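[job 4471] stage=fold_predict status=RUNNING
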Amino acid sequence: MKLLFSYTGPLIKDKEGNYYSRTITDKMLSRYFKIANEVNIFTRVKEVFDEKELKKFTKINSENFYVTECPNISSLKEIIYNSLKVKGQIEKAVAEADIIIARLPCVTGNIVVKTAKTKQKPYLVEVVGCPRDVYWSHSYKGKFAALPSYLAMKRAVKRAPYTLYVTNEFLQHRYPCKGRVIGCSDVSLPKLDEGILKKRLLRINNQEDKPLIIGTTAAVNVKYKGQEYVIKAMSRLIREGYNIEYHLAGGGENTYLKSIAEKYGVLDKVKFLGSLPHEKVFEYLDNIDIYIQPSKTEGLPRALVEAMSRGCPSLGSNIGGIPELIDENFTFSAGSVDEIYRLLKNTDKNMMLEEACRSFKKAKEFDTKLLENKRLTFYKEFCELSKG
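[job 4471] inference complete, writing C-alpha cells
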C-alpha cells in the first residue's frame, strides 16, 4: 500500500541527496510503515551542504521512503509563480497514492485534503497546531493571514473521515470534525524509569546556594515562543538579589533575544545552547531546575511533555494545550511579565518537590508504547475503511 504523507516541512537535503530532519525520523516514520510499504512525503526541501550544520539534524535512513519536493506558496509572490506547479504535483501524488495522511496546519496540506476528496481517495488528517494563533502572534502582516488560514483549516478538518489531534481538548474545540476522532500526542519519550524522579528530587533537595536554572526548549528566532518575557521577569528578580540563570535550547538567530537580555542587564545570565540533537535534549533537561513554556501559541508542546518526563517542575502560559498538562496554579497569561515574575518569586523547595512528582506522573500518560498502540489502532481502522 502506498501512503502519501503531507506536512509543512522543510526537510533538509545534503549534496548527495540524503534527507535530514528534526521531526521526521526513522522512528517516527516506522508508525506509517506499519500501515504502508511505501511512504511518499510531500513537503518543502532546504538544501544544506555545511557538514557542521547537518549535524544538528537526524539523517533519514528508512527504505521505501521517497520525497516529492514542492516549492513554497506562503507569500503572494510565491502563490502567483508556484501555485499551478504545486497543484499539478499534488494531483499526481494523490492519484498515485492508495491512502493519504495530511498533517495540518499546512497550506499545501489543505490542497492535498481537497484533492483527495475530489478524487475520492481515503484520507486522514493530523491536527498539530492552530494557524490562526501562529499567524496572529507572528507579525502585523501575519494578522492578515490569520483568519483565512483558520477558515481554510477548519473546512479541511470538518468533513475529514478520520482526524487525529495531538491535544485532548483544545484543538478539538477549535477545529471540530464530524468523522472519527482521537486525541493522541506525537511526543516520543525514553523509558520513564522511577530513577529519573529520584534523581530530580535529590537535585531539588541539594539546591542550596546554587543558581536556580530555568530552561526553555524552542526556536530562539520565533517571537511567539515568548522567551523575551522570561528574560524581562528574571531581570527583576536578579535586581532583587535572586541567583537565576536562563538556559535556552533551540536553533535560529538569537540576535533579538540577546538584545533584550543586554537591554535588561542580564546577558551574562542567559545561556544560548543552540539546537540540540534529540538524545541530548534529555541531558539538558536533567541539568535545569524549572522548565517554562512561555509561548503565545501552541498545540500540545512536545518540549513541555519531555521536560515533565524528567520530573521538571513546570510553568507555562495558559494557551493551547498547555493547561491540559500543567496545574492551573502554575500557568500565566501569555506575554505577562508580571505573572511570570510572581510565579518564579513564589517558587520554593516544597513547591518544586510537589510539582516534580506531579509532572512525572502526568508524563506517564504519554508513555511511548501506550501512544503507539493507541495511534496504530486508529490508523488500522482508517486502513480498513480504505479497503472498503
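[job 4471] summary: Residues 194-365 form a domain with the Rossmann fold fold (CATH 3.40.50.2000).
[job 4471] exit 0
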